[in-house]
Each structure stands twice: as C-alpha cells, then as structure tokens.
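ZP: hey, is the zinc ion complex queued? I don't see it on the tracker
AM: it wasn't, my bad. submitting now with these inputs:
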Amino acid sequence: MALLPILEVPDPRLRQKAAPVRDIDPEVTALLEDMLETMYAAPGIGLAAPQIGISRRIVVLDVSPKEEERRPLRLINPEVVETGGEVVEAEEGCLSLPNQYAPVKRPERVRVRYLDEQGEEREIDADGLLARCLQHEIDHLDGVLFTDHLSRLKREMLLKKLDKQRRQRAG
Ligand code: K1U
Ligand code: ZN
C-alpha cells in the first residue's frame, strides 16, 4: 500500500470532470486501498480520486467515529439518484483546502448508486454526515469544491485565510 500526495487548491486537476471506470481491474482495486490508507492518514472521512490527481470516478469514505471500528466504503462510478428531506446547513472541510471549514447547504438525505469493488451494482440510502460526505465526494468527481456552494464573499474570505496560513507556514 502507498500514501499518495493530496492535491490542493488551486491545482487545475481538481476542476476536471472525472471519467467513469470501465474495467475494475487490479489497478483499480489497489488504488482503492491506497486511497483508504491516504484518507485515514490525512486524517479525513472521505477522498475522491481527483484529489490525488487521478481523473477517474472513484471515492472512498469512512464516517465511523471510532478508529477501532472502521467501516470503509469503496465506491466506483457513484451517482446521486435521489435526494430527500430538508436542505440543511452543516460545517464541511476539505483535504484540498487544509484547515478551512464553512457551513454548506445540502439535501439531508441521498440515495447513491455505485459499483462495489467486485463490480456489483449497489445502492446506499444515507442521511447525516454520510449523506453530506457522499455529496461532497461526488462533487469532487465533477470538479466541484465545497467553496463553490458558498457566497462569493464567504469564498473569498476562506481563500484569503488559506493563503495567509500558507504564507505563515512558509515562514
Ligand atoms: O473530500 C475531502 O476533502 C475529505 C473531507 C470530507 C468531508 C468532511 C466534512 C464534511 C463533508 C466532507 C474531509 O475529510 S475534511 C477532514 C475532516 O472532516 C475530518 C478529519 C478528521 C476527523 C474527522 C473529520
Ligand atoms: Zn474535499
């Protein structure tokens, strides 16, 4: 397994629309495991392949609160097929915008269709943090970042904070 470097804003590869996976070969299954290792190490609760510079529709996530009770999900070609409930606002972060968080409005519930690592079609009905994380990761596959859901003013403030953080870290 390998830890993969995570791309950060404004890398243009984060803005590309990722291509569907046609063939779930050993390269794809190895990539899923590398992505999980990278996500846990970050640490994060989700990771999409474009964040590691691979323009394919592949996502991993695990929103379980305890490290000892990991519940990894591996999703190939995931798509939101239904949304439900209210539109709710909750804090989001992104490994491609380190240490920046902001409230984002999203549908409370989603149904997501995807292929598992055996190529079986599956559906997952999610609410709460899982629903939010699924929407955030599927957005990455379309080149969309959580900052795109914010007002221009909030987005600019957040990007300025990110810039300041980078300048401070650079010394
Ligand atoms: O896609 C990503 O950049 C990962 C992102 C996922 C996400 C977080 C919050 C709401 C929606 C989607 C992260 O994992 S940011 C880091 C984070 O939230 C976290 C890190 C450690 C423990 C718990 C959460
Ligand atoms: Zn993200």
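AM: back. The mean pLDDT is 97.
ZP: great, adding it to the tracker
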